[in-house]
Amino acid sequence: MGAKDLIAYPGFPTSWGAPSFKDRVIDEKATVAARLEEAGAVMVAKMSLGALASGDMWFGGKTRSPWDPRRGSSGSSAGSAAAVAAGLLGFAIGSETLGSIVSPCRACGATGLRPTFGRVSRHGCMTLAWSMDKLGPITRSVEDCALILDAIHGSDPLDAGAVDQPFDWPARVHFKSLKVGYFEDKDKPVTQREELRTLRDLGVTLVPIELPKEFPVQAITLMLGVEAATVFDDLTRKHITEGLNDWPDTFRRGQFVPAVEYLRAARVRTLLIRAMAKLMETVDLYVGTGQDLSITNLTGHPTAVLPDGFRQQNGRDAPGAITFTGRLYGESTLLAVASAYQQARGDHLKRPPLEKFLAEHAETEKAKEKAAEETTK
Question: What does the pLDDT look like over 276-300, one tens digit per residue?
Answer without folding.
Answer: 999 999 999 999 987 799 999 999 9
